[in-house]
Amino acid sequence: MPAFRMAVAGPGGSDFTGKLTSQVLICSIIAAFGGLMFGYDIGISGGVTSMDDFLIKFFPTVYERKHRAKEDNYCKYDNQFLQLFTSSLYLAAIVFSLLASFLCKTMGRKPTMQIASLCFFVGVIFNVTAMNLPMLIIGRICLGAGVGFANQAVPLFISEISPPKYRGGLNICFQLLITVGILIANTVNYGTSKIHPWGWRLSLGGAGVPAIFLGLGSLIIVETPTSLIERGKNEEGLATLKKIRGTNEVNKEYEEILKATDLAKQVKHPFRNLIRRSRRGPLVCGTILQIFQQFTGINVIMFYAPVLFQTMGFGGDASLLSAVATGTVNSVSTLVAVFCVDKIGRKVLLIQAAVQMLLAQTRTAGFFCAVSMNMFCTFLIAQVFLTMLCHMKSGICFFFAVWIVLMGAFAIFMLPETKGVSIDEMNEKVWRKHWFWKRFFDEDELKTQDKGEDFS
Q1: Are residues 164 and 14 in contact, defined by beta-carbon separation less than 8 angstroms?
Q2: Structural domain tally of the chain?
Q3: Are 333 and 354 in contact (CB under 8 A)?
Q4: Which of 225, 269, 380, 455 could hold 237 in an S-S bridge, CB 3.0 to 4.6 Å?
């Protein structure tokens, strides 16, 4: 991933001419289908693992325990391999997100999204035709590779083609389609649970639909001007910029991209730059937010909603229908954030618990650290939750409640507001003025940064 991830905003980015064109809107929607694929795979696993036909095929001991449990419902799904079915996707995503970062820079955002759709489709084939547990896990690993590629390329792609004024809202389209994907998966699970004995195969196979849409759609979308320019295709980049902005008056934005590209080429050790004091604020905030996002328990609900509802005594149909209701609330809440983010700010939405991964303040290495931390914590929670549920029982709610309190306090006292501030002005207008993070800046380092030696 290039070091100037959101540099198209540039200093005074809000002054750039251009509007929200149909080209930008269509490209953003198509790209955001990578989020739909991700969301579908998040939501589908919990419903599938609650289906008897699936358990009989791959986890007969869990099936027997599920129907024999009388007093202790909390432990009937406690199985490391069952949890691995869910968590393996996110472990693979960590590995492939690093490769995706390299491919985004050398090949472009568009080809990386095409690779993501291909990985998803291969994973779907393995899962639909799975005859044993290893095939099932291989399929989930392929899906994880798709998640790694998509989570790097799609937000970057949307950020770079979006006018600064609409950048936040369009970026949340990716998150919105994740929640829509979860809702669709829950709805599909509710329907296929009545199809015996292969309904679970239909559920897993449904992930192929958004994968095909993204793959075919990526053939007609444009590459981002930033990606073209960083690979030496300046004239093509300029032409694309005029096309997506709907105007020929793009010289100021074009010059900013050229400047950012030149500065990015000077960065030799992006990970080393992360340890500099002035990077402490963005790195810590970007990483800690990912930990909070997982340890507030939200993804536990998304992964294991049907299992949780069955643990509480719901029947099979009722538990799947309750998961649909949960997914609906999640989607509606994210839709609200789409229209609010650029008006009331990121910090306010976070404090109000609409937890978003808006990583506008990071660069290459920092973005990878944040994404990797998110995926690692997702893997960790997915892998141990059913075991935690068995041992902690209802006390697990208090475990997540503590993390929610910590997240709220962190958002209130430690997060700066980035609303209306362009990326290149973050240090001067945001981090240097924050009551805590300003202590990590010193004049010598800032002079070095101004010369372009630390544009990471």
Answers
A1: yes
A2: 1
A3: yes
A4: 225
In whole angstroms, give the CA distance from residue 129 to residue 139.
Answer: 10
The three-state (H, E, C) secondary structure of 162-216, written as one string: CCHHHHHHHHHHHHHHHHHHHHHHHHHHHHHCCCCCCHHHHHHHCCHHHHHHHHH
pLDDT band at 370 (very low <50, low <70, confident <90, very high): low
Residue 253: per-residue pLDDT:
87
**pTM reported for the whole predicted model:** 0.73
Q: Is residue 35 part of a domain?
A: yes
Instruction: Kindly write down the DSSP assignment for every residue of 14-31, as one continuous string.
Output: GG------HHHHHHHHHH
Residue 175: C-alpha distances to residues 33, 107, 233 (Å): 10, 25, 31
What are the two backbone dihedrals, phi and then psi, of residue 223, each rounded to the nearest 5 degrees? -80, 155
- The two tokens of residue 35 are 């989020």
CA distances from 217 to 24, 31, 131, 379 (A): 13, 8, 32, 30
- The domain in which residue 397 lies consists of 13-450
Other CB atoms within 10 Å distance of the CB of residue 102: 13
In a domain, 278, yes or no: yes
Alpha helices in 266-362 (DSSP H): 270-273, 280-295, 298-311, 316-344, 346-351
The H-assigned helical ranges of 107-166 are 109-128, 133-161
Of 193, 173, 159, whose CA–CA distance to 29 is shortest?
A: 173
